[in-house]
Amino acid sequence: MQMRSGLFNVCGVWLLSLCVLACTAEFYTRPLYQVKEAPLAFAAERANLYQIGASIKRAGVAMGWHMQLVKPGLILGTLNARRHQAKISIAFTQTHYSIVYDSSEGLDYDGTMIQSKYNDWIRRLSNAIQSQVYLNQ
Question: Per residue in 37-53, pLDDT tens?
Answer without folding.
Answer: 999 976 566 889 999 99
